[in-house]
Write a structure and sequence with these properties.
By secondary structure, this protein is of the alpha/beta class. The chain has nine helices and ten strands. It has helices at 11-19, 36-48, 57-63, 84-94, 109-121, 139-144, 160-169, 207-210, 230-246, and strands at 6-9, 24-30, 52-55, 72-76, 99-104, 126-130, 154-157, 173-177, 194-199, 215-217.
Length: 247
């Protein structure tokens, strides 16, 4: 059965959805909203690390199809996110050479969906994303993933470095895809437990994250254009892992 992103609107309805355990992918809030119910929502949003976008009322009218949204519309995730610590422990305890993918604040939903699809095709065991500041798993991302979003476990963490340190505690080598290195992907041994970090479209992997990874690697570029689309680059990295592990 195909699962789609659903919307909840109206302050009380949104608060009840959050309190009932629904996973909010993103919240759209009218600029200048105030009052007791809004304060209650705002407190819950901070506790749950819900990403909020402040938008004009016209956008909320479109999202709610001109129904009484009371200044707020939220997107409810069609999937249940996994707890990173529990899932990674389970995978590393049962698999000799797991493969993880960490996405450092990607913003384009189609890139997100495309990467999830490639991850499923290349045997990635889990995808880790930040709780805020990155692309939502919305309808476009789900469609682009061709259903892979319902097959690959996805975890959310407060900070990308949390995921890096967690991986390293299980002796998983963490490899950052970055041009800020002389090593190419062909210099890295992926025939071991590995996690690959792909950075945001505009700035790549965060410099603070680069300081704590085990390895850095780049793709050789032979043309005049200085970079690849992140989903294409991710595919090249993942299939180099497949090549090394299946030869």
């Amino acid at each position: 059965m195909e699962k789609t992103l659903s919307k909840v609107f109206g302050l009380r309805a949104v608060i009840e959805a959050i309190q009932s355990g629904k996973t909010v992918e993103k919240a759209f809030v009218q600029k200048g909203l105030s009052g007791n119910l809004y304060s209650e929502f705002n407190k819950l949003a901070k506790e749950k690390n819900i990403a909020i976008s402040f938008v004009p009322v016209e956008k909320l009218d479109r999202l709610s199809k001109n129904q009484n949204h009371q200044g707020i519309v939220v997107q409810i995730s069609p999937i249940e996110y996994y707890e990173a610590e529990i899932l990674i422990d389970e995978i590393c305890s049962n698999k000799e050479k797991p493969l993880f993918l960490i996405l450092d604040h990607l913003t384009d939903v189609r890139n997100y969906g495309s990467i999830i699809r490639t991850a499923e095709c290349t045997g990635v065991d889990a995808i880790i994303v930040p709780k805020s500041g990155s692309a939502s798993l919305n309808a476009d991302a789900i469609k682009t993933s061709a259903g892979a979003a319902f097959k690959v476990p996805i975890c959310k963490v407060n900070h990308i470095k949390d995921a890096v340190f967690l991986m390293q505690s299980y002796d998983v080598q963490v490899v950052a895809a970055t041009e800020k290195t002389e090593d190419t992907i062909y210099d890295v041994n992926f025939n071991t437990a590995s996690a690959i970090i792909m950075g945001a479209e505009d700035r790549g992997v965060n410099p603070s994250v680069l300081k704590v990874v085990n390895n850095k690697a780049k793709l050789p570029l032979l043309g005049e254009i200085g970079s690849l689309n992140v989903s294409v680059a991710c595919g090249a990295f993942l299939y180099e892992v497949v090549r090394q592990r299946t030869k």
